[in-house]
Structure formats: C-alpha cells, structure tokens
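U., I forgot to send this yesterday:
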Amino acid sequence: MSEAPPIVLFDLPSKGHGTPWSPNTWKVRLVLNYKQIPYTTQWIELNHIVPHFQSLGIPPNPPSINPKPYTVPVVRLPDGSYIMDAKKIAASLEETYPDPPLHLDSPQLAKVEDLFSRLLVPMRGILSPKISRNLLNPESMPYFHESRSKQLGMPLEQSEKELGGDAQWEETKPIFREIAALIEENGGPFVLGGEVSYADFILVGALCLFKRVGEGVFERVVGMAPALRTLYEASGKWLQKVD
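Result:
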C-alpha cells in the first residue's frame, strides 16, 4: 500500500524567498510542527488566491463570516479534501491527530481571540505599509494596496502618516499588557502555564510577523510585554520548519 500524500499548506511567500510571514498561516504551520505532522508548503501570491482556490472547487467563505471569498490558510488533506480557515483547520487536525492536544476548549482561547481582535485596527495602520515595503513580492503589491487602502479608508502611503504612528502604538499598549498578564496569570511561558495550546499559536503567529516585518516592530512589542518574548523563545522548536 502506498503512503498517503502529506498535507499541503498554502502559504504566502515573502520577498525574494519563501519564508512565511502571515500570522494566519503561521497558526496552522505551528500546529503542524507541534504535532509533527508531515506536510509540504505550496506558495501562492495574493492575486492568485481567488482564481486558484475557485479552480480547485473549494467553497467560498460565507459573506456573513468573511467578506473575502477565499483566504489563506488553506490545507489539502491526505484524502484530497480542502479546508479553509485556521481554526477550522486546527479543529480538523486535532480530531485526526489528537496528541499532543491543542486545548481548543480552553476558556483562555476565547480571551486571546478577543484581545487579538482588538489589536487588529491599530496594528493594521502600523503594519500594512511595512508589509508592502519589506515582505511582498511585486506580484502581490497591487492586490495588497487595493485591499488595505479600502480597509484603512485611504491610500496605503497616506495611512502610514495618519494611522501608523505613536498614537496607534499608544492604543496597543494596554492590549499588549493585558495579553502579557494573561500569560503570567498561570506562570508562563505559555498561556496555560507549562502546557502549549492553540491560544499560544495565535500570539506566536503574530510575533512571527512582527519579527519578519522588521523596522523595530518586534522589539517595541516585547518591550511593552516581555512575557511575549518569553513565549516566542519557548516556541522556538516549532518555528524551525518553514517549507
């Protein structure tokens, strides 16, 4: 009997090489690495996501849940089926590969998700111009500029001056400190203390972006919330496989 093909993770490449940067795809990559599930990466540029996933027959996201019909991460499972959305993928992998567990039923997970959602608006203005400048291949830039300009309500170049400065960093400070307090509540280095969970991978995925985007973002974040540096360092073994 031939071996089942490995899982395929569709991920966004970065400028000049395939190093991952998307926090959403990093969540799934961290789950795969943590559970030691064999997989390969298929890199896909932003402007290819919709036509490629449509061609594979993947059902689009319901508009009431996500206005974008297709997003990454997507995985192709060994049986040839596809799953889109990081949390759905994590739940499916947890069912098939239960050990080590992700603790998807932890009440701390909902707290992390809520705190992370509160970061999205201020961090979008801070990060979007830097992502365009430092991470994107030229092919993805027109799509990214158009979509982010719509989200931000102004051209990306303008948003850096108006939505990416000290006022936005100040807005993030209490949220990052709440996240640090949540980690410290159980003694760290992880959200549940000594046990790893999916809640950690949400945070570490974001930290991977902060690290990759450069321009001092990672250091500024962990300066406000040192527990996040400890979490990132404690997760190092699951950050090594990136292809």
